[in-house]
Hints:
The protein is an alpha/beta fold. The protein has a single domain, classed as Class I glutamine amidotransferase (GATase) domain (Rossmann fold, 3-Layer(aba) Sandwich), CATH 3.40.50.880. The chain contains seven helices and twelve strands. The strands form three sheets. The chain has a seven-stranded mixed β-sheet. The longest helix has 15 residues. The chain starts with a strand and ends with a helix. About 12% of the residues have low confidence. Bound molecules: glutamine. Belongs to the glutaminase PdxT/SNO family. One of its GO terms (molecular function) is lyase activity. Keywords: Glutamine amidotransferase, Hydrolase, Lyase, Transferase. It comes from Pseudomassariella vexata.
Amino acid sequence: ALTVGVLALQGGFAEHLSCLRKAAAHLEVKFNMVEVRTPEQLATCHALVIPGGESTTLSLLATQSGLLGPLRDFVKVKRKPTWGTCAGLIMLSEEASSAKRGGQELIGGLDVRVHRNHFGRQKESFVTDLNLAFLAESLTDAMRAPPFPCVFIRAPVVDKLLADNVEETSPENGADFQSLPSPATNNQTLAQGSKIEVLGILLGRHASNKAAAAAETARSVSTKGDGDIVALRQGNVFGTSFHPELTEDIRIHLWWLEQVVHASMK
Ligand code: GLN
């Protein structure tokens, strides 16, 4: 059996556990889903989810519980599959634009900068359908990837890539990287040495870039535009700005558990 942990210091861990259990029921492999609050519990895990919540609080609680070092080791040295949603994505980024000097400690792993609270306050929360082409990779859901209902709550977006090894995405992802802020050319900054794969781009009226916002709907995949990056992967680290655990749609949890299975077979 594979043990999947959910960091349970704060935030939406119960919702993730419930989605993971539902998704696991579709797979042959047996899983143990566990709440992680101590380094000992983390040590039993093959993979980890870091939920949404509030990243400054998460960071403080991780430091106080002696988990920050073990979490960095888990993600960046042992390179175990780790998925962060919202505040979890912030924790897994190398830089957060609003982190004060000497303030928020991050785990890192994704060579990106995130912009916290990109869309504003709680009342600016929204749900939008996004086309997530990577879901078609799913073995159990092969070739069928209807738009995913993405819940954004005081969400961050990735506003800068710190590595120059970004994977070219296929046209159906609707991404155009020409117009992204140019990444640092210094490979020394690479946390992972793996390519950054942009897996989800926000288009439509919520996008901050005019061209992307002018795209008719967030699900129009043919429109080229530099929308906001809201899902990405770099090696073992996966991040989403939005909250799949707050929907009935378990496809992302299923897809990620499949990645965990693949990683365990290497
Ligand atoms: N705004 C929060 C932060 O900066 C994240 C919000 C969330 O996880 N829903 O940490």
